[in-house]
């Protein structure tokens, strides 16, 4: 459905979580680059013919899936690069009323447009940015979310690393809309998604990812108001969000949110202070794993970019009728009052329990030595590595750290596609794995590293998440070797014998590889689907 065609929902709207279907990618969560596969789908857009467009992030392409198709076709990109027929880390996507495809080419700091029915290898045109990474009005800095006014072609962009929203009326004319870094009502922290309600004077909704909230800005306003989530507070309660990445709003002001780190889709009905879960990670096949984006079908079904399950899921809407039944029951109530009083001194603990049903009283006195259960740290932290950016003294979305026996600090610098090493006290770091801001799948490259482990022999073990592999870089090496494949991990450990252990986040299990270098793994925990049973794990990190 076109992005500026807002939706009206029935009051009893329910989405069939138990009957979810995979409309793009692998239903079993396997990554790949063939026409029927995806590798970390970042954004999804559904047009009025129910055609699904997907920005296939790690494959550097946009895939088009006709309704009920088993394979997709490439309509933009396919190889990383800066040429007009290439994309590098495509993110937000939109399709206008004429079928033109717009995509955020994030690493290249631009938005590209491809003509209707384009095929792999075709050139696109730059409609925003393309003037290098930066903060000037004609530049972008790792942009993410995208909204295109279908009938005018005006492009709205979540300029994520500039912490602002910008609007481009033409390829040469960018203009500032709102935002700067912070958590105030006029500020953002890495905003990733946006929606413009063209039926309400271009009211703007922003997924303020780092502040865990959705902000609503009226046209011309100098600040926004929080309409979902709690400002700068993450959580999984119904009034909270955790790194939300996308937002859509219907004609009645109901807000749909990709609550990414909570692995769920939330609905905030207009005026409510709490939301309701539309789809979450509780059951198969409806389970979600890092949903980054959502879109609506013409029949109001929801399409979700189920990113770390490597697929797009469709959840069908139903509008059940309600029946009210009134039952009168005579009951007898028995009340038991229990009062617990605990008194603690430095040397004596006395417990008194009174139950009114038995009129019994017991008192126990014991002399104990109370251990110190909690340590205390200074309330003021000290920065030992980083500041926002990509040079040697900076980091961009660091996800993990490790420290070796020589007191060197290693950082998985996610958005810069590298591992940085810092000697504590130094002002700059050194890149010891990957190439700064050059993301790729070659042996000397990384793409979105999520964790790092340093062995006693100096070797680094790195979860190279977007390449779904674990790389080993020996001390001083200029490239790595692959020691595990088909895995997205947030936790890696290697013991003294060289045995590798890794959390398999996508498959809800922990794996072990033998120290002899064998590529066959053994499941040592989980592997029975997501859940809370004693033999299950849910997205282990």
Question: How would you portray this structure in words?
Answer:
With 541 residues, the protein is mainly β. The protein folds into 3 domains: 38-318, Neuraminidase; 338-367, no CATH class; 398-526, TolB, C-terminal domain (Neuraminidase, 6 Propeller). 0% of the residues lie in helices and 40% in strands. The chain has a 4-stranded antiparallel beta sheet, with no helix packed on it. Mean pLDDT is 84; it is low at 324-377.
Describe the structure in brief.
This protein is mostly beta strands. It contains no helices and 41 strands. It has a 4-stranded antiparallel β-sheet with strand order 2-25-24-23, with no helix packed on it. It has a 4-stranded antiparallel β-sheet with strand order 3-4-5-6, with no helix packed on it.
The percent range for strand residues is 35-45%
**Helical residues, percent:** under 10%
Task: Quote the average pLDDT.
Answer: 84
**Which class best fits the helix and strand makeup?**
mainly beta
Q: Tell me the name of the CATH homologous superfamily of the largest domain.
A: TolB, C-terminal domain
CATH architecture of the largest domain: 6 Propeller
CATH class of the largest domain: Mainly Beta
Residue stretches low in confidence (pLDDT < 50, at least 5 long) are 324-377
The largest β sheet comes out as: 4 strands, antiparallel
* Principal-axes shape call: globular
**Extended strand count:** 41
What name does CATH use for the topology of the largest domain? Answer: Neuraminidase
Q: What count of helical segments does DSSP give? A: 0
Total count of domains: 3
Give the termini separation: 36 Å
Radius of gyration: 26 Å
Widest beta sheet: strand line-up: 2-25-24-23
């Amino acid at each position: 459905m076109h992005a500026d065609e807002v939706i009206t929902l029935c009051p009893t709207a329910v989405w069939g979580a138990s009957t979810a279907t995979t409309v793009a990618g692998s239903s079993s969560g396997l990554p790949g680059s063939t026409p029927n596969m995806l590798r970390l789908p970042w954004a999804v857009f559904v047009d009025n013919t129910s055609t699904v467009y997907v920005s296939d992030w790690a494959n550097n392409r946009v895939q088009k899936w006709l309704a009920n198709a088993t394979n997709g076709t490439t309509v933009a990109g396919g190889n990383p690069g800066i040429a007009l027929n290439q994309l590098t880390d495509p993110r937000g996507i939109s399709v206008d009323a004429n079928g033109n495809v717009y995509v955020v080419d994030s690493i290249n700091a631009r938005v590209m447009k491809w003509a209707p029915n384009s095929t792999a290898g075709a050139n696109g045109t730059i409609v925003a940015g393309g003037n290098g990474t930066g903060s000037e009005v004609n530049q972008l800095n790792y942009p993410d979310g995208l909204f295109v006014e279908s009938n005018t072609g005006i492009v709205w962009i979540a300029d994520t690393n500039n912490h602002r929203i910008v609007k481009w009326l033409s390829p040469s004319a960018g203009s500032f809309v709102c935002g700067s870094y912070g958590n105030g009502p006029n500020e953002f922290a890495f905003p990733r998604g946006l929606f413009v309600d063209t039926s309400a004077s271009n009211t703007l909704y922003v997924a303020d990812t780092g502040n865990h909230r959705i902000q609503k800005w009226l046209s011309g306003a100098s600040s926004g108001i929080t309409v979902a989530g709690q400002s700068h507070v993450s959580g999984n309660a119904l009034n909270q969000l955790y790194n939300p990445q996308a937002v859509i709003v219907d004609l009645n002001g109901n807000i749909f949110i990709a609550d990414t780190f909570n692995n769920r889709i939330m609905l905030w009905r207009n005026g409510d202070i709490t939301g309701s879960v539309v789809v979450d990670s509780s059951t198969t096949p409806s389970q979600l794993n890092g949903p980054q984006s959502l879109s609506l079908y013409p029949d109001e079904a929801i399409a979700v970019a189920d990113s770390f399950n490597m697929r797009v899921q469709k959840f069908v809407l139903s509008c059940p009728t309600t029946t009210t039944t009134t039952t009168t029951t005579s009951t007898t109530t028995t009340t038991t009052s229990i009062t617990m009083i605990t008194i603690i001194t430095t040397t004596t603990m006395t417990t008194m329990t009174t139950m009114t049903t038995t009129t019994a009283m017991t008192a126990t006195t014991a002399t104990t030595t109370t251990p110190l259960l909690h340590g205390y740290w200074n309330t003021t932290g000290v920065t030992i590595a980083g500041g926002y950016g990509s040079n040697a003294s900076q980091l961009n979305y660091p996800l993990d750290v490790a420290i070796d026996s020589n007191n060197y600090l290693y950082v998985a610098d996610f958005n810069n596609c590298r591992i940085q090493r810092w000697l504590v006290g130094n002002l700059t770091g050194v890149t010891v794995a990957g190439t700064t801001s050059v993301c790729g799948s070659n042996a000397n490259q990384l793409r979105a590293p999520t964790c790092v482990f340093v062995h006693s022999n100096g070797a680094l073990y790195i979860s190279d998440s977007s390449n779904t592999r674990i790389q080993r870089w020996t001390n001083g090496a200029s490239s790595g070797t692959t020691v595990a494949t088909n895995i997205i991990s947030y936790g890696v450990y290697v013991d003294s014998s060289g045995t590798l252990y890794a959390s398999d986040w996508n498959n809800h299990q922990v794996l072990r590889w033998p120290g002899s270098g064998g590529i066959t793994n053994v499941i040592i925990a989980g592997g029975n689907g997501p859940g809370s049973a004693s033999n299950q794990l849910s997205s282990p990190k």
